[in-house]
Amino acid sequence: MHWYIGIDGGGTHTRALIVNAEGQVLGLGKAGSSNYHTVGITRATQALAEAVAAARSAGHVHGLASGAFLGLAGVRTAADHLAFREPLADLGLVKSPERVGLDHDLRIALAGGCGDQPGIVVIAGTGSAAYGRDRQAVTAQAGGWGWLIDDQGGGTWFALQGLKAVMEATDGRGPRTKLEPAIFAELGVTSARDAMLWTMRPDTARSQLAALAPVILAAAEDGDKVAVALMREGAHQLARMAAALDEPLDFGGGSIPVVPAGGLLSNPSYLEAFRAALNPTGHPFQLVKNPAPPIAGAAFLAADLGGMPLSPEARRKLGEAARTLG
Hints:
Blueprint: E1 3-9, E2 14-20, E3 25-31, H1 36-39, H2 41-59, E4 67-72, H3 78-83, H4 85-91, E5 100-103, H5 105-114, E6 119-124, E7 128-133, E8 139-143, H6 155-170, H7 179-187, H8 192-200, H9 206-210, H10 213-221, H11 225-245, E9 256-261, H12 268-278, E10 285-287, H13 294-305, H14 312-323
Helix pairs in contact: 5-13, 6-8, 6-11, 10-11, 11-12, 13-14
């Protein structure tokens, strides 16, 4: 039996999906972060091994896969690929080395929405970035320069902007906002000073900061003017990333598919704000509806590497199944 492993490794968690040639999910495994820039190569490799082992166990799958593809956050350069050369070999995923592929997580998100066709993916999760592939298979990326100086429109950016708004409201530099009680409740604190001290704790992880983003989006849906302004600004920044990719890439002058990805863009209000922000850019963007999740895109690419690409019907079936996965 031919089966494939698709892996989606992010800054918060890692998921491994095993599927067969008919697009049927055989097993799903989960583990912690596999971004080696933040957790180190040893812990990243451990997360990959744990996720794969859990997927194998869930699907009662033994032996080696016909193909595997890993989309990992933080993998961009030749040095990044080199860092994973030995760890991937040690994982023993596939029958031969040429049947395993490695790239960043944006690649698998684009594959989930466009398959092997040209397009742009914009991701808003813990961080944010955009990645495009044109009709000559030339690729380019915009954004994704890290939470400290970029990642605008992503979860950590939302958290920092929301906390700034709370601090400004506290000392009268900004308007009062529902973000104050909402963020205080989420953090389990009672004052802006306590919130500030929480952010400065050495054990406060970036993922914990990013968890404040849904609180801000909920306040926007509740009509809070400060939160609404933040949501619109975040959407505008994501649209700017997409627009930046239309210059270096050749899409042939027709409409350009834009794939929304990441946990934040699963929020209907934020997705609609992003759709609205794409319109005034002057680029012929067409938002892709109901794209397959990145983990399914990884499986699509794994099957391609295995020499037996999934049929359109198998891809549709797998995409539907992947949307229901936890």
